[in-house]
Specification:
With 134 residues, the chain is an all-alpha fold.
C-alpha cells in the first residue's frame, strides 16, 4: 500500500484534490455571464439545443420537451424568464445524468452561459441544476 497523503503548501481554494487510481473528477467551473441585453436569446437557445443533442441521455424525450418549452416561452413577446429558467433547469438536470456529460461539460457550460446572463436573477436555479457557480 502506498502513502496517499496530500500536502498543500498554501491556499487550495477552488482546487479539487483526490488520491487513488482511475478517479474521474468533475470540478464545477465559475462562469462569467454576459449582460442580458447582449444576448441573442433565440440563437443562444438554438446553440444550447445542438450541444445538448450531442449527449447520450436515457431521457431524450424529457430533454427535448424541456428545451421545447423554453423555446416556446422565449418566442413570446414578453417571455416569462422564471418559466424559461424552470425548463432549462430540468434540461440541465437531465444533461448531468447523461453518460458523456463530463467530457462535454466545458462546451455545455459555454452554451448555458448566455442563457444564464439573459435570465438575470432567475439564473441561479439553472446554475444550481448545472452545478456551476455564478
Amino acid at each position: 500500500m502506498t502513502d496517499r497523503t496530500i500536502q498543500v503548501g498554501g491556499d487550495a481554494n477552488g482546487a479539487v484534490i483526490t488520491t487513488g487510481d482511475n478517479n474521474k473528477i468533475y470540478a464545477p467551473p465559475k462562469i462569467t455571464m454576459p449582460e442580458p441585453l447582449a444576448v441573442d436569446i433565440q440563437q443562444a437557445l438554438s446553440e444550447l439545443s445542438v450541444a445538448l443533442g450531442e449527449l447520450s441521455t436515457q431521457k431524450p424525450r424529457k430533454l427535448n420537451n424541456a428545451l421545447e418549452e423554453a423555446k416556446e416561452e422565449v418566442e413570446k413577446a414578453q417571455p416569462d424568464k422564471a418559466e424559461v429558467a424552470e425548463s432549462l433547469a430540468r434540461a440541465a438536470k437531465i444533461a448531468k445524468e447523461a453518460e458523456g456529460f463530463a467530457s462535454h461539460s466545458e462546451k455545455l457550460v459555454e452554451r448555458f452561459s448566455p442563457m444564464l446572463g439573459w435570465l438575470g436573477p432567475h439564473a441561479t436555479r439553472v446554475a444550481e441544476a448545472l452545478g456551476v457557480a455564478i
